UniProtKB/TrEMBL annotation:
<feature type="domain" description="Alcohol dehydrogenase iron-type/glycerol dehydrogenase GldA">
    <location>
        <begin position="9"/>
        <end position="182"/>
    </location>
</feature>
<keyword id="KW-0520">NAD</keyword>
<dbReference type="InterPro" id="IPR039697">
    <property type="entry name" value="Alcohol_dehydrogenase_Fe"/>
</dbReference>
<protein>
    <submittedName>
        <fullName>Iron-containing alcohol dehydrogenase</fullName>
    </submittedName>
</protein>
<dbReference type="Pfam" id="PF25137">
    <property type="entry name" value="ADH_Fe_C"/>
</dbReference>
<dbReference type="GO" id="GO:0046872">
    <property type="term" value="F:metal ion binding"/>
</dbReference>
<keyword id="KW-0560">Oxidoreductase</keyword>
<dbReference type="Pfam" id="PF00465">
    <property type="entry name" value="Fe-ADH"/>
</dbReference>
<dbReference type="InterPro" id="IPR056798">
    <property type="entry name" value="ADH_Fe_C"/>
</dbReference>
<dbReference type="InterPro" id="IPR018211">
    <property type="entry name" value="ADH_Fe_CS"/>
</dbReference>
<dbReference type="GO" id="GO:0004022">
    <property type="term" value="F:alcohol dehydrogenase (NAD+) activity"/>
</dbReference>
<feature type="domain" description="Fe-containing alcohol dehydrogenase-like C-terminal">
    <location>
        <begin position="193"/>
        <end position="380"/>
    </location>
</feature>
<comment type="similarity">
    <text>Belongs to the iron-containing alcohol dehydrogenase family.</text>
</comment>
<dbReference type="InterPro" id="IPR001670">
    <property type="entry name" value="ADH_Fe/GldA"/>
</dbReference>
Length: 387
């Protein structure tokens, strides 16, 4: 059995059933009245009922807020803040997938500030406007292995009014304790295992390709990609495989640790598409991945060689990595084109402009223009991978 306690990049407990001790970890973090933030589907699940029951038995004044939708909105955060303040809570349990964890982080940041949530958009030094003393401590319990939001210092929230996804950032919204319990992810259906797993891969791959100098992040991303190569297909085919589920949870946290180095064009386009079409973020990244790699090829040949050698691919170069990714997508039944999930080219120009101005675009190895982003998007709609 894989068990570990790490303190980098925050306190992380990895063990089967470690979430059973949630109440104890709350108490250790000085939280006596936590607000548990989750989505409406998980709210009805046995795992949430069990966690609530155990916390109440331990004397915690815990309450549930389950009004988080996929791609959480500013409205979701406002409602959550109301619950947090009315319940006089002193900390947050982020329980669920990336949407729940992102929403929990945004609530923790903005609940007690005099400024509104959007004032903390990840631009310049906006985060310095926050009063750090009143940011609520968070314990994160991910139930998917993909976003790695549990070790991130940012939250992606949709501004409904302007139909854009905004990145909210503050170093203090990194959860104080993360519980990686693989038993919480065994029930994840195959399509979600695939989409979230490919999101984890896209974080590591984009971080690895990003040209900024960050050798620590680069090393983390390489090993995480090796783990994903071996264990994502296993987790997909055999959901109850605890070892595969554990490795995927850890690879997912590694991805979010690594992408402090930067993300890239997959995320720039996926963020834009997510705001306009509301598709699953991981699925969008999975579909976009080969098209973005192809567009980046002139700048990533050397790195793809290094990645190919580390993964021990028979063809340790760009073509070999591309082949591996296309095969992996097939094994996971990921559609090859955006058209396959109902996205057409009608809004291509707008998507191109949104992607070029997305925060993730700055990490891409090639600084694409809006027109180039439109071209990549159109190729992903049509399935045009080669010139
Ligand atoms: Zn992502």
């Amino acid at each position: 059995m894989l068990e570990a306690q790490w303190n980098y990049p925050t306190a992380i407990t990895v063990a089967e059933h470690c979430s059973d001790k949630l109440a104890q970890y709350c108490q250790e973090a000085g939280i006596s009245a936590p607000l548990m933030v989750t989505d409406p589907i998980l709210a009805d699940s046995k795992m949430v009922r069990n966690a609530l029951g155990a916390c109440r038995l331990s004397g915690l004044a815990i309450q549930l807020f389950s009004g988080v939708q996929g791609n959480p909105t500013g409205q979701n955060i406002e409602t959550g803040i109301r619950h947090y303040l009315e319940g006089q809570h002193d900390g947050i349990i982020a329980f669920g997938g990336g949407s729940s964890i992102d929403a929990a982080k945004a609530i923790a940041l903005a609940a007690n500030q005099s400024l509104s949530l959007w004032e903390f958009e990840d631009k310049g030094n906006n985060w310095k406007k926050a009063d750090t003393d009143v940011i609520a401590p968070i314990i994160a319990v991910p139930t998917t292995a993909g976003t790695g939001s549990e070790v991130g210092r940012a939250a992606v929230i949709t501004d409904e009014e302007h139909q854009v996804k905004k990145i909210i950032f503050h170093p203090k919204i990194m959860p104080v304790h993360v519980l990686l319990d693989p038993t919480l992810t065994t029930a994840l259906p195959q399509p979600l295992t695939a989409a979230t797993g490919m999101d984890a891969l896209s974080h590591n791959l984009e971080a690895f390709c990003s040209p900024s100098y960050h050798p620590m992040a680069e090393a983390i991303s390489l090993e995480a990609m090796r783990m994903i190569m071996h264990y994502l297909p296993v987790a997909y085919l055999d959901g109850d495989n605890i070892q595969a589920r554990t490795h995927m949870l850890v690879a997912s946290t590694m991805g979010a640790t690594a992408f402090q180095k930067g993300l890239g064009a997959m995320h720039a386009i996926a963020h834009s598409l997510g705001a306009v079409y509301n598709h699953h973020h991981g699925l969008l990244n999975a579909i976009l991945m080969p098209y973005v790699l192809a567009a980046n090829q002139p700048k990533i040949n050397e790195k793809m060689g290094r990645l190919g050698r580390y993964l021990a691919l028979t063809q340790p170069n760009f073509d070999g990595v591309m082949k591996w990714i296309l095969t992996l997508r097939q094994e996971l039944n990921i559609p090859h084109t955006l058209a396959d999930i109902g996205i057409d080219s009608q809004q291509a120009q707008r998507i191109g402009e949104m992607a070029a101005s997305d925060a993730a675009a700055s990490g891409n190895p090639v600084p694409f223009t809006a027109t180039q982003y439109t071209d990549i998007f159109n190729r992903a709609v049509d399935g045009t991978l080669t010139n």
